[in-house]
């Protein structure tokens, strides 16, 4: 990093003096000198600017650098922290920062800088796009997010100066996005402080009441904590362990979350205090655990070994809950100094300790893998809100640890299914999975995984993602890949339908589709806002353009078309896929008189001619098409029927048997009892009207069936 042309007249604030004094404890003298030059430059750039609180703006960059200094980060990161707002709030450009302080610092500042003033439809769109860009920059250099988190932490510390509604909005965003990111990167202290500050502004009354209750209880419990600490230290010393033991009070948000999740009052939350034991090495951790278990009885099911199976963010410790004196539960964490360092600084520990330590390497490999998965999800998501939806699930804590058949451990979010596991192993396995085995037993793909499960995925080369998977997968990677596949499939099917519709419209104008030149197609695509002929055909299939209008424009390119002409009768084969939809209001089947409606972004929707849902809009739009069923349709269609039956023993079994004998399958059944009679609503799989009539004749033969009808509308 180099600096030249720096202002020399600026006075150094006392806060800056404290910062540089702190940095001198671990940085070289020349690095501290360079950072002082950066500070003077930033102070000059922000001269005359003030924060909402009334203090000079330079206080904010100094505070951000101080937060990162406590993590003992490198000189480039601290320089970028001091400069992180100059590009947004002053006349300083990225090129000037690069010229003065070097390209790496300029890239970090650029990554952290907020969005330019872009017009978005909603605030949610703006924030989602901001978050998307932030993660993209973070994937290139994780220090970007470290600066951003420190920036958010200081903003949260000074949030009081904002309007109440803005405080709540910023606090909610911090709780939902920034705190989980800090947790995912292992920044334990920042994570808990962000949570507590968010809690304070989201629920100010609850925060105040809980804070007062904790203060009142603190005096009563101090003596008990001292007794426990002394007992632990003596027992560990007697076991020959050199251990550092400390007690800590849980954060208010942790207490509040426990009260909400377990429906407890404050007086029922007994384990407000946790205890931490730090010993020299891993074997000593397990010796300390056994020693403390002999002092206080462990509570069954309350032990977790994060040393053998670390969390996804690299966190390692032994956790155990013990019955302390007077029946008070105690939470104990046992770890080594190296584990403690990673628990406090997470991924940031990399810049302090240039070590070949295997745990640190593993932590950064895991972080890089997570960042790469972000980039993959980013490329699969078509918009920022969708990306944000995908990634939120992966950020929230609560993981399950499962094994591959080879014994490799995978960490997945809580409530993950076998499909989530398949996509976590590899995208191709997820796309082609057809079945799963958990602990050697065949299970449905929607089965929720539990920690310790061994999962094996069965694949087939012809298999494809199922839209129904979106109802139960939870990981962002699985959701984004399934949606990408479905969008590609819908695009291809819509393009094929659009070509059919357009060819029929051209034929009705007595034009051979083969005679339309490539130049005509290119010109029409540009005028219609499509990138290519294929895109234009897909837009026709999705209802964004009427085929008759496009056909007339191809026939007379220079003519402005205001009306439409008929496109002939469209043949419905039932194999068009997502481009043709069968309306759920009337559920048409082959043999029903039908009409087609081109609905924007949904394609061609087929209704029965007498569907009650369309009676009001018939004749009010040019989007109606004449459609007819094709021959030899083999697929099954959903039909809803209602039966009123006498309420007698075994009647459901007889009805189900009659449906099966007629070659139909039951998708769903809902029954409503009403004294002597029961109403049964069935969703059946039917080939055509003839098949439906056959099913209904079989049902009428059952003596208990009083009334039967097909449901529409």
TrEMBL record:
Residues 398-459 form the TGS domain. One of its GO terms (cellular component) is plasma membrane. Keywords: Kinase, Transferase. InterPro entries: ACT-like_dom_sf (IPR045865), ACT_dom (IPR002912), Beta-grasp_dom_sf (IPR012675), HD/PDEase_dom (IPR003607), HD_domain (IPR006674), NT_sf (IPR043519), RelA/Spo_fam (IPR004811), RelA/SpoT_AH_RIS (IPR045600). One of its GO terms (biological process) is nucleobase-containing small molecule interconversion. In eubacteria ppGpp (guanosine 3'-diphosphate 5'-diphosphate) is a mediator of the stringent response that coordinates a variety of cellular activities in response to changes in nutritional abundance. This is GTP pyrophosphokinase. It comes from Nitrosovibrio tenuis.
